[in-house]
Amino acid sequence: MRRTMRLRTVLCIFAVSALVGVSFLRTRTELFAKDPKARSTLNATTLSPSQRPDLRDRPVRPPQDYLAIHIDYEDEDRHLAEAAFWPSPPSAGLIRNGAKGNFPVTNPKYTTYRLVNPRDSYTIECNVWLESGTPHCDYSDPYAGVTWVCDKPRTLSCDRRVNHWVDYEASSVYCPLSDGQKDLINIEGQSFKAVLAGSPEFVHVKTMGKKMLSMLPRPRCAPGLPDPYPAMGYFIKDIWTSTVCKTRHFKSSQYLDCLQNKELYFMGDSTGRQWFELLVDTLRLKHMNTDPFITRRAGPHLAINEKRNITVRFRVHGYPLRTGGLNVSHVNFLAREIDTIHGGPGYVLVISVWAHFTSFHLDIYIERMRAIRAAILRLLSRSPGTLVVLKTANTRTGVPRLNSDWYAHVLDRLLRKLFENLKVVILDVWDLTLAHRNRDEIHPVRDVVRQEVQLLLSFVCPDYETQKA
């Protein structure tokens, strides 16, 4: 009988050193209200890429709204002059976020993966890099910016792989946290954050009323806009309004009109898959998968509406992957997958690559994104009418050994740098997820995902009149 192997992922925390202090000296905050009538319906608002509804993750409840500003990521003194969107004396505080000493900046690997053969009961390590001296199975793809190797099994050939999965319990065994590292993780599972003592209790918000509207000119949502850093906006009644461009607020019935005769391909991690799933549910698309071994988490997925000529796809980005039950035959690295699509007017490519890279050295992320960038350039060269959207990271809680808003923020900065001056959309959802009344989650709640998709559709159909229906 043919013997097969399964892949198991074992997750290790980064080597964590002492917190690097962040300077808040001479920091001054000026807040201005936009609409005095918004207070009674406001859920939360955001002014910087690092705000939270409440410093301790408590939901805000009008009229006692909370405004929390997470001021500094780069050891700099800041003078903030930001716009608030409702009048009141909100509470204010400063959060210290662990800086470079906490994250993988020198070691190429901080996550261990395992290749497991259940029949022979042995475990083999896989990773982006392994010590030399033993035979390896090399599954790397330099064209796609992927380095991936495993120790060679004693009795199986390298092509006898079947499944890849994650094992969080084994991670705690192989990579236990030190006492010092455990102290950096609070009871919410949010690592490397601390509220600074002596934070100001209140900030006075001046009412400027409708005059504020003329101070916020918003262009049409389109590729090539200046990088909105930080991107700002506000929630009212769970509806997000961006100050970066003229966001549209689509009713569910209007999704069909906007997406008629269009094809959307979501590539990347599960935060992008959430967009795919929302569209499938909202549009009541028909799933076309025929392979019984395709998993919900990894895909590839295909769903259509034949009458409206709408096609929506999803595919996971490939190793490293902290997911389970993945048949390795379904893995195709994104640079190669992008080379297979036709593109053109009516074609939307959405890339979301970040969540599985927060336990690796920056070079691993850069290598992958450079290959994806080259593939996008080839796509835009052969099909210049293609709309390419790069989704940023969102804030999160969850598995402490993987959770770092600071490091996700660093990846976001790299993403912007790699794709600057290209005619693509950097769709910033960082502030959107921070501002919502729900706590931060690696997989945001459906209300948040819907607003992310609304923002996406504002670029897909920027001229659609959402008030007409």
Automatic annotation (TrEMBL):
**UniProt-recorded name of the protein:** NXPE C-terminal domain-containing protein
Q: Where is the composition biased (Polar residues)?
A: 42-51
Matches recorded under InterPro entries: NXPE4_C
Pfam families per UniProt: NXPE4_C
Give the span(s) annotated as Disordered. 42-61
Stretches that traverse the bilayer:
none
Species name: Branchiostoma floridae
In this protein, which residues make up the domain named NXPE C-terminal? 240-461
